[in-house]
Amino acid sequence: MLLGLAPAAHGGNRTGRIFTGDRSGDFLFAALWRAGLCNQPDSHARSDGLAMRGAYLCAAVRCAPPANKPLPAERDRCLPYLLHELALLPRARVVVALGAFAWDAALRVLPGAGEARPRPRFGHGAMARVGLYTLIGSYHPSQQNTFTKRLTPAMLDDVLRRAERLARELAA
Questions:
Q1: Of 36, 40, 43, 124, whose CB neighbour count within 10 A is largest?
Q2: Mind listing the domains of the chain with CATH numbers?
C-alpha cells in the first residue's frame, strides 16, 4: 500500500485517480513501473489502461486541500475512509508513506501503532514495525522534492524495491 497526501487539484482531483495526470504521478508511476508494480510508466487518465500489480495507491486526505496543506482536522475527518481502505486489503503488510503527513496518518490507522514506543519518526528510508505492518517512509514525489533532488529516481526505486521484497517475504 502506498499512502500519499491528497489528490492534487490538477491531477487526481481532476482525473478521479490519485497521482494521475500530474508531475508527482509522472515521477511515481515511472518508479512503480521500474519496480514491476504497474504495467506502464505513466498515467494521464482513468481510462489509460494503467493496472497496478501487487500495490495499491491511496491518500490520507480525500480532496485537494488549499495550498496543498491539509489541516489536522481534514486529516482526522478522512481517517475513517483510510481505515476502510486498509480493511479492504487484508493481505497488505507493508505501507509506504509518501511524506511525513502520510507517515503520521499511517500511524493513526495501523493497528498496534498506539503501542509503538518511542513513536516512529519519519525520514526517507525510515522503517518501523507497527503491529502486523511494516511502515516505510519516502519523501513525497512532489516537484518541490524532485526538482531540488531531495528525492531522486534512485532513492524512490530503493524504497519501492525494499517494500516489494519485504511484502514478498511476509506473504511467504
A1: 43
A2: 2-165 (3.40.470.10)
Rounded to an integer, what distance in angstroms lies between the CA atom of residue 11 and that of residue 97? Answer: 19
Tell me if residue 100 falls in helix, strand or coil: helix
Positive or negative, the CA dihedral 29, 34, 35, 39 is: positive
| Cell of residue 90, nine digits | 487484508
- Decide the pairing of beta strands 57-59 and 127-130: unpaired
What does the alpha-carbon distance between residue 164 and residue 35 come to, in Å, rounded to a whole number? 8
The closest alpha carbon to 151, from 163, 141, 137, 161, belongs to 141
Sign of CA dihedral 25, 165, 96, 120: negative
Give the bridge partners for 167, in sequence order. none
Provide the CB-side half-sphere exposure for 153 (13 A, CA): 10
Three-class DSSP category at 154: helix
Q: What is the pTM of this model?
A: 0.91
Q: What is the pLDDT of residues 124-144, one digit of tens each?
A: 999 999 989 999 999 999 999
Cell of 162: 525494499
pLDDT tens readout for residues 7-57 = 665 555 556 577 887 888 899 999 999 999 999 999 888 889 999 999 999
**Alpha-carbon distance values, 119 to 103, 108, 129, 130, 157 (Å):** 11, 11, 11, 10, 26
